[in-house]
User: What shape does this take?
Amino acid sequence: MDIVVCVKQVPEVTDAELEVAKDGTQIITEDLEFDINEWDNYAVEEAVRIKEAFGGKVTVITVGNEDSEDVLRQALAMGANEAIRVDEEGFDLSDARGIARGIFQGVRDMSFDLLFTGAQSSDYGWGQVGLILAELLDLPYASLVVGIEIADTKLVALRELESNTQEKVELPLPAVLTIQTGLNSPRYVSIMGIQKARKIGIKETGFDGLGLSEEEIGPKGSSVDSQLLSIPPAGEGAEILTGTIEEISEKAAQIIRDKGGAL
Amino acid sequence: MMGEILVLAEQRGGELRDITFEMLTLANGLGKEHGLTVTALFLGHGASDLAHKLTRACDTVLVMDNPELANYDADHYLIAMDEVIKDRMPFLTMVGNTAMGMDIVPALAARLSLPLVTDCVEVSIAEGRLEILRQIYGGKINAKLTMKPSDRYLISLRTGSFDAEAEQAKSGSLENVPAPSWTKLRGRKFLTYLEAELEDVDIGSADILVSIGRGIGKPENIPLAQEFADSIGATLSCSRPVADEQWLPKSRQVGTSGKTVRPRLYIALGISGAYQHQAGMKNSDTIIAVNTDPKAPIFNIAHYGMVADMFEVMPKLTEKFAEK
Assistant: This one.
């Protein structure tokens, strides 16, 4: 079972206070930590588990700059066998379609049984790359996958729907799946594991080697003409309790009592 | 005159889903302002009652009735939509950013070379072009974008962005369209729907919920939250990351893919407030949020906020209630 997994490096923003660059086109990332996109981490783990059960190899691919090799090394440390980096030059201001076209060129001549992407990314959240790839590759697909059972030349995937409901679908192989968080418990990799993975070479390719035209990627290949980022205006919002921890806790306790807590 | 807005109706288990009418509310607003007709596309089998329900909110209901469309299936939906869009060339096609819509639009856009923006929160038309508001980076950043000039657009709309109940004062006509021949199928088969089994606790019936998010940090901290919940007679629930880590069972998850709750009091601890979570709890009578990040989106919908460390607040509160 040979599996390709598309991964992306994203800034960690959960606990960060974000700022927008002056020109409004991007956030300021200088003080942010970078990590593998959470959905992609589950995808890598699932691919490695399937490889461990059925044999074969796992190839990870990303579109990014040299720093993004960190996420490739992490995936290698988790058990992936090969890694490809498509250099981001020319992909600046691409939307999901431009990125998908870059990955398509990188994988179209490879033979694989499964291709995984995360269902979405935590930064822009287009949620598109996997399904555009399926279309370009002319392969069956399922999105938002929270369970996979493989049987010979086909698989059964569980798709996560709304309100605690799932949908069971069958797909022939090869197929494209976009992975939802929670379908496994991604393994932890140590710094030493990542160091070891440094021995595995990362294959590099770029715009020139991919045979893409300028119309297909970057701003020309995007559905978006211009994009202006801003910090959302505070809504009516919460009444923020002020004071020392003791004082705000007492205020909160009073609200809880008023609403019938501890009765 | 720019023509038509085509809205893909979403149904499951014999019911139209709210997103359908949310999209129609947006479509009718745009239609009125820019002289566009609003058409709902109903794909299904033997559900004429559902198709009929759409007439109150659009100008035309296109009904494609075919056994292969009885349940949602990506292969068949793509071919059906491909046919309808090529035939009618709508200015704007709208699909929900739901488990169904997310499974269609990127492939459809690629197949038909349509410009696409997913997960839109606000949509307007200026000089014939689409202007869109999205929320990115977990709701911490707004992105206002203008799409490239085109005579056809495709978007997906975030659930809960428009009112599903709004009165549209329309009485659309029903029009049947034949199903295409199902060629170019890729072999995906719908098998069945699975509903999660009810477990020990039904968080949907709790009066008070203490809900924990990513801020809980590690499973060893769960008992601290449980203790606090016990001290005030609350039930413990959680946001997605906690269920993903399997620190609490999925049945405790509040949000779009979990449970929608409306307790008298909802206390959110270390929950940033992704929109999928908000959709599951924003109608709670009173919401208290505790988060170290003053910009956490949860504070936009909470009634009371504490910019504080949940691990300082929880024991203090537990102590106050436990001693009585």
About this structure: The mean pLDDT of chain B is 95. The CA atoms of residues 5 and 92 of chain B lie 5 Å apart. The radius of gyration of chain B is 22 Å.
